[in-house]
């Protein structure tokens, strides 16, 4: 039995190489130059959805893939204007509480069901049904939604409890894609595995932990008004592959085993930029930036002085700069800079100031020290548990670096941060168990500043599905945000949302770090016209085509 | 090398004998040089494990955001990582972790193996048959897989990593112990001890164990190196000690992400693992040779 030092490491490397090397598509074929027909695209992405029906739960990977097989009622353009999609027009009542959507005629789901008013009503009902276990959609709708009714065969009326000015923007997300009522009636599990929409592709097969195979919907004729072309997609097949290892995913693109990858890891940006065959498309999400949320149910964090001390103790811009190699900017506001009505004066509200942090902690009574130098009060060490998903697809290496940097900086002022790697199941449990965490790294991508109400209101705290991570609310903030949703006057909205950002800053319920950015990287010599829609940064493959030999 | 070293003792044509003798001398010199080099490396690593502050005064956990990804220089001989931590300090402080896991795992493997081996060697036919089956079943799994299973069940920490690697190394040692015990049990000197009327306990501790274990000591020296490599492999796969704790395998994993821009993050922990385990192997071989010549005397 001779030890073979290099062998185990070599085996691990080999496993990586094999992962990187498992592609199938061959873009070369015999069609003439310039045609946009046909082809199989391999699209490698970092995260696998838990359910292909985006109404359930509502995490980012769901909306990315759902965009390929579901159409929404409306579509949002980059300037924020909303254009027709399945709804070719709509009327809003004067009080802002009734929306009549007039649907396109002659549209069918890929299972043959017609798209009519009843089908859309069934979608709203499914979203509001507790059995669907919706998180994202439910939080967007439930504070406002009253009912949806079919006025005529092709007119749906949505009635609201109170006005909701961002409603159209909200409905443009693939999270609100319209699904076949017959497919939804199969129950959550079957619908999760293969939801049915009216979109340009249909789900053919989901090989878990591996890929989803999407096939072209040859009858497609309901593209949004802002699509690059109407009619069926050019691609015949899309292999939506899950390659969560950053190095392997980028390797797949370099070797041409995948024609597009999402996300391009930040650490690979220099290499991608240097490679003339690789095009990158960056998308800065609007909404709430990636932040460390503070659980105010924890006794030590119920004190705002401690929360502010934590923020002052962290050199947040430096932390982000080091982890994201200068590729991602820093954001200290409760809203990312691209969000409508973002107020720049809260960009860096609590500058790095360890002395001030120490003073605040002293004031809060954390004056003792334990044998390791951490602060104590009444014999208890100031400890903060920070659980995170140990899966590198969920917590990318750069985020892990952020956590470590944060931990080291808090240590300097005597705060002990415990990094706790957890599996996916434990993380899900932690979200709804306020005793299980003190800090969590979270973000909320959204096209509207109304997202602040989702993350920090009494109403969403009462829904208790773990999205109000700080587990706190402020009456003044609630009032301000409800008022903002009730007005359509842009100036008044600006002013109210600005007030809200100020309140959130002074509460210090979180330490915002960076606006979430996603990066699509494509092989420019193999594929063209994949574009990113602006509501949630969903990649759109409907207009994409592969480049033939000699093209 | 053994053949070369003993060559001059055999009758050889006079013409070739001088160059052969020179070659043999060179081989011996080389061997002793490699022995001393290996010994120095092992002593250094031991020192790093016991008193890391002596070799690397910098705190391995202390970040310095302005100095991230600094290439090796006089201030940071192994460069810095993504948080500006000193890679040299981390390699030095990682020695304790790696060594503790390596030694701990080997100890666990040995204790289990001795129990199994003695049971099989001395416990009668039924016990022997069951022990052999257990060893065979354990052998059926590649060691690293066995370790992965244990970690999947019990979660990742230094302790599980130690136990996992220990259990994975157990069958190899167990088989050897059993074989040695069986061989020694039937030997003349055990029979004579019995004839002298020694108690079974005394025969076991004074006669059987020392003789059965001599080859084991050599194997253990080699085994520690292997255990360290396995522990590093688990750390590399994210199954071991968690960051930011300095551990060689975990450092390799962290550095892999940045290999295109900061090669030193992987190179130095990697080369340390290679040099250290190689040194242990060299020492083990020397011990083995010493044991062999001792046995033949």
From TrEMBL, chain A:
Pfam families: SBP_bac_5. InterPro entries: Peptide/Ni-bd (IPR030678), SBP_5 (IPR039424), SBP_5_dom (IPR000914). Its main location: other. It is found in: Cell envelope. Residues 1-20 form the signal peptide. Keywords: Signal, Transport. Residues 81-448 form the Solute-binding protein family domain. Transmembrane segments: none annotated. Belongs to the bacterial solute-binding protein 5 family. PANTHER family: PERIPLASMIC BINDING COMPONENT OF ABC TRANSPORTER, PERIPLASMIC OLIGOPEPTIDE-BINDING PROTEIN-RELATED. This is ABC transporter substrate-binding protein.
Automatic annotation (TrEMBL), chain B:
PROSITE patterns: ABC_TM1. Keywords: Cell membrane, Membrane, Transmembrane, Transmembrane helix, Transport. InterPro entries: BP-dependent_transpt_permease, MetI-like, MetI-like_sf. Residues 95-284 form the ABC transmembrane type-1 domain. The keyword Plastid does not apply. It holds the Pfam family BPD_transp_1. It is found in: Cell membrane. Belongs to the binding-protein-dependent transport system permease family. This is ABC transporter permease. It comes from Brachybacterium halotolerans. The lineage of its organism: Bacteria, Bacillati, Actinomycetota, Actinomycetes, Micrococcales.
